[in-house]
């Protein structure tokens, strides 16, 4: 046996080396589950699920992320969020969704949760090979919005938002006042319990231009769905204004959210995004922390 190995040790070494090299190539070609590849992004659009789906005909479009089926069910598109009525850009989002799926037979895919607190079905919607949730974000009519534990396609949706933002598509189009106003200070973590100290949570905007800016009808929004609409208000050149999460009397340098239901803080301590838009819905700034 020893003589055999001595005589064939070169061949045996080559075989062992081939196995090791083959294993390395195999492992290196396996996908990294933590990264978003172009292939993963494309699959969300061209590979509709073959299971866990039902069929419905879209009878009515409520807004850019909610529809009603012919059977009477209300369906909320998960993984995305679009402007609501009374905010900038809601009609464009609603009309685009209507153009895509109204009167058509679609497939509804459930993730983890069946219904939300409003008894709406939480679903991904497919029209043939088109992933509608993704399409709305890709075209700039919606932003990515995570609804844990329903996050099956969140990587692809987030990638679509990134593309839309970089190309300044739809809701990501820059307003004329872009670069004129900045966030000069952000206090997201109030002293003590944020929910009981709302006026210690605030964001400060500064007008860096040499002209006053009319901010009436502008909106400030976080990454979720909290929206503040500016009253009749001018921000003077090089002036600042603080927007507080609680209640108070507005002045030339202090504005208050003055919500009817003031149970909770606005800004997420662990990280959030400030979106400031003009009265036409143009994006003035996007500030993340």
UniProtKB/TrEMBL annotation:
Stored InterPro entries: Lamin_tail_dom (IPR001322), Lamin_tail_dom_sf (IPR036415), SNase_OB-fold_sf (IPR035437), Staphylococal_nuclease_OB-fold (IPR016071)
Record's keyword terms, sorted: Endonuclease, Hydrolase, Membrane, Nuclease, Transmembrane, Transmembrane helix
Domain LTD intervals: 165-289
The keyword Transmembrane is annotated on this UniProt entry: yes
One Gene Ontology molecular-function label: hydrolase activity
TM spans (from-to): 12-29
Limits of the TNase-like domain: 52-174
Gene3D superfamilies: 2.40.50.90, Lamin Tail domain
Cross-referenced PANTHER family: EBNA2 BINDING PROTEIN P100, SERINE_THREONINE-PROTEIN KINASE 31
Name used for this protein in its record: Nuclease
The species this protein was found in: Candidatus Portnoybacteria bacterium CG23_combo_of_CG06-09_8_20_14_all_37_13
Lineage: Bacteria, Candidatus Portnoyibacteriota
């Amino acid at each position: 046996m020893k003589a055999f190995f001595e005589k064939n040790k070169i061949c045996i070494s080559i075989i062992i080396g081939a196995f090791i090299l083959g294993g390395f190539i195999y492992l290196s070609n396996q996908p990294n589950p933590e990264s978003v590849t172009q292939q993963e992004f494309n699959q969300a659009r061209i590979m509709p699920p073959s299971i866990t789906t039902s069929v419905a005909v879209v009878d009515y479009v409520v807004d850019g992320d909610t529809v009603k089926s012919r059977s009477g069910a209300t369906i909320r598109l998960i993984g995305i969020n679009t402007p609501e009525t009374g905010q900038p850009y809601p009609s464009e989002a609603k009309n685009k969704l209507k153009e895509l799926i109204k009167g058509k037979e679609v497939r509804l895919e459930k993730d983890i949760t069946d219904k939300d607190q409003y008894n709406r079905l939480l679903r991904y919607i497919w029209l043939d090979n088109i992933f509608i949730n993704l399409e709305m974000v890709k075209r700039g009519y919606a932003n990515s919005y995570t609804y844990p534990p329903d996050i099956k396609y969140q990587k692809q949706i987030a990638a679509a938002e990134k593309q839309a933002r970089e190309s300044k598509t739809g809701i990501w189009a820059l307003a004329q006042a872009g670069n004129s106003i900045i966030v000069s200070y952000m206090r997201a973590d109030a002293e003590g319990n944020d929910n009981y100290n709302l006026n210690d949570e605030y964001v400060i905007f500064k007008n860096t231009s040499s002209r006053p800016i009319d901010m009436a009808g502008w909106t400030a929004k976080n990454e979720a769905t909290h929206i503040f609409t500016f009253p009749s208000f001018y921000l003077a050149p090089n002036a600042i204004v603080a927007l507080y999460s609680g209640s108070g009397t507005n002045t030339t340098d202090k504005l208050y959210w003055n919500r009817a239901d003031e149970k909770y803080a606005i800004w997420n301590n662990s990280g959030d995004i400030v979106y400031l838009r003009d009265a036409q819905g143009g994006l003035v700034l996007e500030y993340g922390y």
